[in-house]
Amino acid sequence: MGQGAQAESTGTWYASYNDSLRGALLGQTWTGLAVNAICLAVVLVSVQWACEIIFTRLWRLPGPPIAGLTNWYRFYLVRTGDYQHHLKALHDKHGPVVRLGPNVVDLDYPELVKTMYGTDNKYLKTDFYHNNSTKIGWNIIPNMFSQTDPEAHARMRKPVAKHYSSSAVLTVEPLVDKVIDQLLEHLDERFVKTAKPCDLGEWIAFCTWDMVGAASFSEDFGYMAQGKDHDGTISTADKALDYFAAIGQMPFLDYLLDKNPIKRIGPPHLGNATRVAIEHIATRARGNDPNFDPKTPDYLQRFMEAKETHPDIVDDGMIMNYVFINLLAGSDTTALTIRAVMYYVLKNPDVYRKLKSDLGELELGRIAQYSEAKALPYLDACVREAIRVHPGVSMMLERYAPAEGLTLPDGRYIPPFTKVGMNPFIINRNPRIWGDDPNTFRPERWLQQEDESSSAFAERIKLFNATDFSFGAGSRMCLGRHLALLQTYKIVAALVGRYDIRLTNPDRDWEVTCSWFPRQKGLVCDLR
Ligand code: HEM
C-alpha cells in the first residue's frame, strides 16, 4: 500500500472511531447509552462511597484498612466459609469494635443487646435482609423475616405468633414423635443391625426436614424413607442460604443476580418443596387432605385459620410465606443445632457418660415427652452449652443505628444510620460473661457449682439469660425457637438414651463451613 492510501485508511478509521466515541459519549448509540449508564453508576457509587468515608467519621474506628474502603472485604469474609473465626480473630486483635465495611461496624458489647435488639423498634433491620424476600413474577414480597418496616412486620407476625409459643408448640408434639419414631426405626434397621457406620449428621438433616414437613402439613418429605436428599431440596436450600449470606453484604448485587429482570443468575429454586407446599394448601382448602387429622392440627391448619380471623392480612400468598419460613428458617438451623449437641457430647467422653447415665436412670421410654426432657438439668446444660459455642446463626444481625446515633459503653460514638450489629458467635464467647474459658464446651457452667450459693448461681444464670443472643432478641426474636428446642431436646434424649454411640474417628474434628449457618460434616458414628 502506498503512503497516500495508508494515510487515507488511517483517517477513515480515525473518523469512524471518533464518530462512535462521540456517539457513545452523547448517548446516541446503544453502546453510548451503556457507557453513559456505567459512568453514571460509577460516579454515583464513588460519591456515596466518599460521603460515607468522610461524613460517617467511621474511619476513626479500628478494623482492617481495606474494610473502610469497600464492602467486598466482608463479602470475601463470608465467602471464605469461615466467617465466624475470621471475625473472632478481628475482635481479638481490635477489641469490641470492628469496622467491617465503609458503613458497617460489628460490636461485642453484650450489655447492648437490649438497647439494639429491644421491643421499641428503634434499630431497624438493614437491607441485608431485603434479598430474603419472596420473588413472585415481577413482585418482590417481603416475608416476616425480611420485612424491615416495624408496623408491617408486626401485622405479619401477629396472626401466627401465638402458635409458636412454648405451650402452643406442644400441640404438634405428636407429629414430631411420629417422625422421631421413624428415625429410630431407620437407624435400627440400617445401622445397628448391619453394624455399618452411620453419617448421623446427614440423618439428622433428613429427620429435621421430614419433621418440619410433618409439623407444617402432616406429611414428611420422605428423606428418611429414601435415605437421601431425593429431590435435592436440602442441598438447594443450603445453596440459597449461602447466596443470601454473601449477597446481604452487598445487597445491590441481588438486583443484578437473583432479581435481575432480564436474566436471573441466582441460586436454584426450591421447586419440589414449593410444589409440595402448594399441593397441600390446595387439597387442604378443598377439604380432602388424606394426611390431615383434625385432632392433631398442624401449622398449615393454623395458617388457614389465620386467614379466616385476619382476612385483611392473611391471603394465600401469606400462607405460602408462613409455610416457607417454617421450611427455610426451621430445618437447617435445627439440624445443625442437634448435630452440635451430639458432636460436643460425643467428643467429651465424660460428658457423654454423665448424660447417658442421667437419661438411663429416668426410664423416659422410647421417646421422651418434651416436658420430661426439658426438666433434665444435665441435658438442658448440654443443649444450652452447645448452642452457646455453636450458635445456629453465626452472622452479624444487622441494624441501622437510630437518628440520635449510638454511644458505646466506652464513650465512642457511632453516627446515625451506620449499620451496626452483633454476632451470636462473638457475644457467646465474651470473657466478661463466660469467664476465662469461653471457647471450651463445658456444660457444667450452666449448673450450680459446689462452692456457689443459690443466690450467686441465680445471678449468674440471670446474666447468661440476659445476654443469650443465639435466637436474636426483642421484637425480631426467632419465632420458631420453642419449636426448634422441642425437636432438639427430644431427639438428643432419644439418641443418647437408646444407643451406645461412638464417633467412628474420635480423633478427627468435624469440618465446619459457615456463611449464614455454621454447617458441619463428619459426624460419622458407630451405633449399637
Ligand atoms: C435452632 C434453630 C434456630 C436458630 C438458631 C434460629 C435463629 C434465629 C435468629 C438468630 C433470628 C434473628 C434474626 C435477626 O434478628 O436478624 C431468627 C429469626 C427468625 N426465626 Fe429462627 N432460628 C431457629 C429456628 C427457627 C424455626 C424452627 C423457625 C420456624 C418458624 C424459625 C423462624 C424464624 C423467624 C420467622 C424469624 C424472624 C422473626 C421476626 O423477624 O419476627 N426459626 N432465628
Automatic annotation (TrEMBL):
Query: What cofactor requirement does the entry state?
Result: heme
Which family, according to UniProt? Belongs to the cytochrome P450 family.
Q: Which domain of life is it from?
A: Eukaryota
Respond yes or no to whether keyword Heme is given for this record: yes
Which residue windows are transmembrane per the record? none
Asked whether the keyword Protein biosynthesis is assigned, the reply is: no
Per UniProt, where does heme bind?
Answer: C478
Q: Which Gene3D superfamilies match?
A: Cytochrome P450
Question: Which InterPro entries is this protein grouped with?
Answer: Cyt_P450, Cyt_P450_CS, Cyt_P450_E_grp-I, Cyt_P450_sf, Cytochrome_P450_monoxygenase
- The identity of this protein, by name, is Cytochrome P450
- Which Gene Ontology molecular-function terms are recorded? heme binding; iron ion binding; monooxygenase activity; oxidoreductase activity, acting on paired donors, with incorporation or reduction of molecular oxygen
List keywords of the entry alphabetically.
Heme, Iron, Metal-binding, Monooxygenase, Oxidoreductase
Q: Which organism is it from?
A: Emericellopsis atlantica
